[in-house]
Design brief:
Strand content: 15-25%
Helix content: 40-55%
Structural class: alpha/beta
Number of strands: 5
Radius of gyration: 15 Å
Order of helices and strands: HEHEHEHEHEHHH
Distance between the termini: 22 Å
Number of helices: 8
C-alpha cells in the first residue's frame, strides 16, 4: 500500500505504540521520508499530533484508510475515534492483523456495524482511482497483478468476518 499510495499521491501517516518498549515501525514497510510518524501511548492513532497534521493538509471530514496490527485494539479505537468526529473510515481487511487471529473477524464485524467501510486493499485502490482512464491506472494495475498471489493469501488468511 505504501507504493500504491505514492503513485496516487495519498499521504501516509504512521504511529508506533510506545516505541521505546515495543520498537519502531518495521523497516520492511519502507515508509517514505514524507510520511508523518509519531509515537504514542494511547491505543488510538487519532492523537493530537496526527489531528494537527491532517488539518494542515486537508479540510475535514477526511476519508482515511487504516491498516495496522492489533485490529481489535489500535485499529478499532482509531476507527471509532475518527468516525466519532465525522470522518469516513475504510479498514483494509487484508492489511490488518492481530496476535490472536480470532480477534480480527470480531473487530471487523464490529467496525462494519459501527459504520466503517471494511474492504480489501485492491477494492479500495480501484475505488480511489474511479476510472481506468487516469494516468496512474497502468502503474496501479501492474502492481495489483504483480502482488496478486500475496494479496490472495492475505485475503484468505485475514479477511474472515
Amino acid at each position: 500500500m505504501v507504493t500504491q499510495g505514492a503513485i496516487l499521491n495519498i499521504p501516509i501517516y504512521a504511529t508506533t505504540q510506545n516505541a521505546a518498549r515495543l520498537g519502531p515501525v518495521c523497516s520492511e514497510l519502507c515508509l517514505p521520508s514524507s510520511a508523518f510518524q509519531s509515537d504514542k501511548t494511547a491505543f488510538s492513532m487519532f492523537i493530537p499530533s496526527l489531528k494537527s497534521a491532517l488539518e494542515a493538509v486537508s479540510t475535514s471530514p477526511y476519508q482515511i484508510a487504516i491498516v495496522g496490527i492489533e485490529t481489535h485494539i489500535c485499529v478499532t479505537q482509531t476507527a471509532l475515534d475518527l468516525m466519532a468526529e465525522g470522518h469516513k473510515v475504510y479498514v483494509l481487511a487484508d492489511g490488518v492483523s492481530s496476535c490472536n487471529q480470532g480477534e480480527i473477524g470480531v473487530a471487523l464485524r464490529r467496525l462494519a456495524a459501527e459504520g466503517a467501510v471494511v474492504t480489501t486493499s485492491e477494492g479500495w485502490l480501484y475505488e480511489c482511482m474511479g476510472d481506468a482512464s487516469i494516468a496512474e491506472f497502468k502503474a496501479i494495475a501492474g502492481l495489483v497483478k504483480e502482488m496478486k498471489d500475496s494479496t490472495k493469501d492475505a485475503v484468505q488468511t485475514l479477511c474472515k468476518m
